[in-house]
Amino acid sequence: MADVIQTLTSYLHKENEKALRRLEERLQEEGYEPNFFGEVKPYVDEFYPKKDEWQELCKEWIKEEKPKYIAPNQIDSTEENLNNVVLQSFYTDTKVKRFKQMYQANKYVLESILTYKEKGNESI
């Protein structure tokens, strides 16, 4: 389970970064409109199952290992924020300030988990 959590957390961290870059690129393209069925839906269909698996595994891991600074509600918030960040990154009418706040919150939790998995409880 630990390796799967680390792999999925790394994947979600990369997707969080990609979402920020994608939004920044879309904001530069005047009049950009995503193709929902050709671009957004296929991306989300691949992303959501991995994110959902990560959420379930992390909650189990927290119950078993009880990391000091990572709580189940952070996992739930991160899951919801990841949904929003990935989906909103395709659309130019996104509220950038709110998007970046969610991005930063995701980054913090995901990096905290990766650090814990690499170094243990005292490292966070």
Task: Describe the structure in your own words.
This protein is an all-alpha fold and 124 residues long. The chain has one domain: Four Helix Bundle (Hemerythrin (Met), subunit A). It has four helices and no strands. The longest helix has 30 residues. It starts with a helix and ends in a 5-residue tail after the last helix. The mean pLDDT is 93. This is DUF1798 family protein.
Question: What is shown here, in short?
Answer:
This is DUF1798 family protein. The chain has 124 residues and is mainly α.
Give structural attributes.
single chain, 124 residues, mainly alpha, Four Helix Bundle (Hemerythrin (Met), subunit A), 0% strand, elongated
